[in-house]
Q: What sequence folds into this?
């Protein structure tokens, strides 16, 4: 198991707190997906992929919910912040998609390319999405 330093974890908890997660979820519910989420959703759907999706750095799950609404069969959403996982779980229940959304709470390590892994999460990127490969027949 990868261990993050205490100062990173503490900073992460402050930046991605319950209050911030609640604000983001309220904004998503009232305004719908933001521009980045719409662009990512449309790109995935435009490629004909997206039946099973891995959403890394999922935040409150906005992109996951958009893909599920557009017909994705299953989404695995990985998120390091417990407050964001809680918000996504609440929204999944509200949307009745809990059976198609796997929430995975993990601390993520991003390799910075400099030889040493840093425990940074790029919140501004909207997450990194990777379509999962179909199961071998």
A:
């Amino acid at each position: 198991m990868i261990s993050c330093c205490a100062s990173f974890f503490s900073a992460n908890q402050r930046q991605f707190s319950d209050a911030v997660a609640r604000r983001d979820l309220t904004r998503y519910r009232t305004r719908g997906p933001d521009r980045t989420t719409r662009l990512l959703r449309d790109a995935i759907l435009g490629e004909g992929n997206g039946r099973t999706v891995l959403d890394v750095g999922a935040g409150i799950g906005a992109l996951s919910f958009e893909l599920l609404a557009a017909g994705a069969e299953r989404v695995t959403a990985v998120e390091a912040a417990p407050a964001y996982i809680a918000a996504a779980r609440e929204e999944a229940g509200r949307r009745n998609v809990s059976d198609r959304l796997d929430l995975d709470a993990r601390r993520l390590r991003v390799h910075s390319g400099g030889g040493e892994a840093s425990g940074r999460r790029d919140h501004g990127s909207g997450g990194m999405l990777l379509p999962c490969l179909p199961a071998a027949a």
Notes: The chain has five helices and six strands. The chain has one domain: 7-131. Residues 110-137 have pLDDT under 50 and may be disordered. The helical segments are 6-15, 18-31, 35-46, 62-69, 82-95.
